[in-house]
Amino acid sequence: MRKVVVQLCVSLDGFIEGPHGELDWHxxxxxxxxxxxxxxxxxxxxxxxxxxxxxxxxxxPTADQDPDAPAPIVEFARIWREMPKLVYSRTLPxxxxxxxxxxxxxxVPEEVRRLKAEPGGDLALGGADLAxxxxxxxxxxxxxxxxxxxxxxxxxxxxxQGTARTDFRLLESRIFGNGVELLRYQCAQ
Length: 189
Fold this sequence. Notes:
Number of helices: 5
Helix content: 25-40%
Oligomer: single chain
Radius of gyration: 16 Å
Order of helices and strands: EEHEHHEEHEHEEEE
């Protein structure tokens, strides 16, 4: 059975975005980006909310056309374009999508469980709001948190206030050369 895996960069104080939605504090060097590519290239699909999808569409469709783009950027642009994508949105028209993407209007637990039962690679879930909805329904199997060596002081938290208690089991930790630490957790369900 496929797993739903949340992969996000998180500040030391638990934020996934700065106070104004900024992500400029992410330390993603060639080593870490190559690691992302190796892992994400094996996935079966990307599951994103509208905001995350629009963020990705703003850069990745043509990122590899820059002659100065580093090899990991070129590689991920191809991975992103070719990977099937489900975009969870109540407002985004299907006609606005391209790059192997389709709209899903609601998080329906039975549909997600059917998707998990299909053959293929795991499902990469991106976006905190979508992750919160999946977590409420007990649909997340694993978190891959890339702890960034920075304190933001404010912003969008990984887990919003009011999130129900959830226990985790540490599966892996790894420190990258730039000081980012991967903490990989399994959701105890």
